[in-house]
Amino acid sequence: MRVVTLRINGDEREIAVRDHWTLLEALRYELGLTGSKQGCDKGDCGACTVLVDGEPTLACVTLAVLAEGREITTIEGLAPRHRASGGEGADPLQEAFDRCGALQCGFCQPGTLLSARALLDRTPRPDREAIRAALAGNLCRCTGYTQILEAIELAAGEAAGVEVPTPEWMADLRRAEGTSRP
Ligand code: FES
Ligand code: FES
Fold first, then answer.
1. CATH number at residue 154
2. Structure pTM?
3. Long-range Cβ contacts of 103-107 (<8 Å, 24+ apart)
4. What is the CATH number of the domain that holds 54?
5. Is residue 151 classed as helix, strand or coil in its secondary structure?
6. What ligand is nearest to the CA atom of residue 110?
């Protein structure tokens, strides 16, 4: 075992890890940060995605010892990060996923949200191809992806103060519910 200091969601956490432990194992089983999901555990599905120095990183194939000194953001830190920068409530991407119904079982959502946040941080108004490319490593077995793409476009458009066209399915839902809630 060796003691490492990890900077996670703005806090310094000191833990003892074995050299072969992954960052995902350290997060989930030593620090109790279970928002990062353990899916394939071999780099294929993206469910374990966290941000390391702002870059989407697969925690299941990253050694915990190599993350020392880096800035790590997990899904637990996304809303606090937004509030620390002057926002209110959850990250706008989380709100947009909720409003667009961009999830079913939710297993992929932490990783997808973090990949999307990294994209919007470096490219505030990505086109749909850029969104698809940024999310290429985040697999979702439930949604069919359309509402995920729409949610990211919605968050990006609103951040830029641009009116985002209402998806046809959402317009139908509003009519059915007799509501103007976006
Ligand atoms: S759990 Fe890491 S890529 Fe699937
Ligand atoms: S919502 Fe179930 S895997 Fe994406």
1. 1.10.150.120
2. 0.92
3. 103/142, 103/143, 103/148, 104/142, 104/143, 105/141, 105/142, 107/37, 107/39, 107/47
4. 3.10.20.30
5. helix
6. 2
Stretch 62-73: mean pLDDT, rounded? 97
Residue nearest to atom 3 of ligand 1 (CA): 43
Tell me the per-residue pLDDT of 33-48, one tens digit each, with 9 for 90 and over: 999 999 999 999 999 9
Pair (97, 36) in one structural domain: no
In which domain, by residue range, is 112 found? 90-177
Q: What is the whole-number distance in angstroms between the Cα of residue 37 and the centre of ligand 1?
A: 8
Count how many domains the chain has: 2
Residues 97 and 168 reside in one and the same domain: yes
Residues 63 and 120 in one domain: no
- Same domain, residue pair 66 and 104: no
97 lines ligand 2 (CB under 6 A): no
User: Does ligand 1 have an atom closer than 6 angstroms to the CB of 111?
Assistant: no
Give yes or no for a contact between 97 and 103, defined as CB atoms under 8 angstroms apart. Answer: yes
